[in-house]
């Protein structure tokens, strides 16, 4: 197996039960950002424990796109492959647990959580913590929306725009950036209707700009998304009108999943995302953040993985004691 010395392996092996163990780095979150950080830290011979709650945001998505060498891979398969790669290192381990709290303990941090999928509870002390828990999604309140989510309806335009090209599409949302997302979609279709579900999400100037591109804004309240045999066929409005659509995109409200870190009092922006420097360092030394946990929020899987690699390099340098200019910190 690739990896580090046996003494390091024994510590992480003890962390498989994750009770009273001690490691150098705990990575919270087993998505592309967290697993990428863990993989690179394992290769830097750091003792690493990944704690994953096993509730991925993209669980409903059948195929993910734009990830070099993995275009069209299932997001769940990508995570499985990532876990296997991390676990292949003797100085690294992945456990399934829902982290309940992270607190300062001595010169490091204590991470506790409850096991999921038959996994053991976690109680581990670490020198550093990498937070990569991503976001949770709140969808517009439309009954059948999730029945088509991940198949005909998507949230990532860059990820799924290509597969939707040339089709009559719906864009459903209630947020102020809806017009911007509509403009992006005109790259892939010239038959787009924006449904605001009675929210004040598109102003008059934005509507005029969209109209110049052939995009219509429908401000009526949505009753439901309709389909046949699991295939979306249209959007039914509250007045009974059905507008035929072959699919489209949803703009959920995203919220960083960070309740477990409240005791750390980390700096956040106005939307609740963790504020970091360019290398992922938060306002509390020893705590780092990667992927969608940081502004500007949800991004492609490949971007999240790259973020994890950047953060791993910063963690390793900081544990060695190197300043940003490469000089040793004495």
Task: Describe the 3D structure.
By secondary structure, the protein is α/β, with parallel strands linked by helices. It has two domains: 6-136 and 253-320, FAD/NAD(P)-binding domain, CATH 3.50.50; 140-251, 3-Layer(bba) Sandwich (FAD/NAD(P)-binding domain), CATH 3.50.50. Helices cover 23% and strands 28% of the residues. It has seven helices and 16 strands. The chain has helices at residues 6-14, 32-43, 75-87, 157-160, 178-185, 204-212, 301-320, and strands at residues 19-28, 48-52, 92-105, 108-115, 122-131, 135-138, 153-154, 169-173, 192-195, 216-218, 222-228, 231-237, 242-244, 247-251, 253-256, 287-289. A five-stranded mixed beta barrel has the order 1-2-3-4-5, surrounded by four helices. Strands 7-14-8-9-10 form a five-stranded parallel sheet, with helices on one face. A hairpin with a 4-residue loop joins strand 12 and strand 13. Helix 2 runs parallel beside helix 3 (75-87) and helix 2 packs parallel to helix 7 (301-320). The radius of gyration is 22 Å and the shape is elongated. The protein starts with 5 loop residues before the first helix and ends in a 10-residue tail after the last helix. The model is unreliable at 1-17 and 325-330 (pLDDT under 50).
- CA distance, first residue to last residue: 35 Å
Total beta-strand segments: 16
Counted by DSSP, the helix tally is 7
Low-confidence stretches: 1-17, 325-330
What about the largest sheet? 5 strands, mixed, barrel
β-strand percent reads 25-35%
């Amino acid at each position: 197996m690739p990896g580090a010395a046996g003494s390091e392996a024994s510590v992480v092996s003890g962390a498989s039960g994750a009770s009273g163990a001690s490691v150098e780095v705990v990575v919270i979150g087993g998505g592309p950002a967290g697993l990428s950080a863990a993989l690179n830290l394992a290769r830097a011979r750091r003792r690493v424990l990944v704690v994953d709650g096993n509730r991925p945001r993209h669980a409903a998505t059948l195929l993910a796109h734009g990830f070099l060498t993995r275009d069209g891979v299932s997001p769940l398969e990508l995570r499985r492959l990532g876990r296997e790669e991390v676990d292949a290192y003797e100085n690294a381990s992945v456990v399934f647990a829902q982290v309940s709290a992270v607190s300062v303990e001595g010169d490091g941090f204590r991470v506790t959580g409850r096991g999921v999928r038959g996994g053991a509870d976690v109680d581990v002390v670490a020198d550093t913590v990498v937070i990569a828990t991503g976001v949770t999604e709140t969808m517009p309140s439309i009954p059948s929306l999730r029945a088509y989510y991940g198949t005909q309806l998507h949230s990532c335009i860059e990820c799924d725009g290509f597969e939707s090209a040339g089709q009559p599409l719906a864009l459903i949302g209630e947020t102020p950036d809806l017009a911007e997302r509509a403009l992006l979609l005109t790259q892939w279709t010239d038959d787009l209707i924006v449904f605001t579900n009675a929210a004040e999400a598109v102003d008059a100037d934005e509507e005029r700009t969209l109209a110049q591109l052939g995009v219509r804004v429908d401000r009526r309240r949505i009753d439901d998304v309709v389909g046949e045999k699991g295939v979306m066929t249209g959007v039914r409005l509250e007045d009974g009108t059905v507008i035929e659509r072959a699919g489209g995109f949803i703009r959920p409200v995203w919220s960083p999943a960070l309740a477990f870190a409240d005791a750390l009092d980390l700096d956040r922006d106005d939307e609740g995302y963790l504020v970091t420097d360019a290398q992922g360092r938060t306002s509390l030394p020893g705590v780092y953040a990667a992927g969608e946990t940081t502004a500007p929020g949800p991004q492609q899987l490949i971007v999240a993985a790259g973020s994890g690699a950047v953060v791993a390099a910063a963690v390793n340098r900081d544990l060695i004691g190197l300043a940003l200019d490469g000089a040793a910190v004495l």
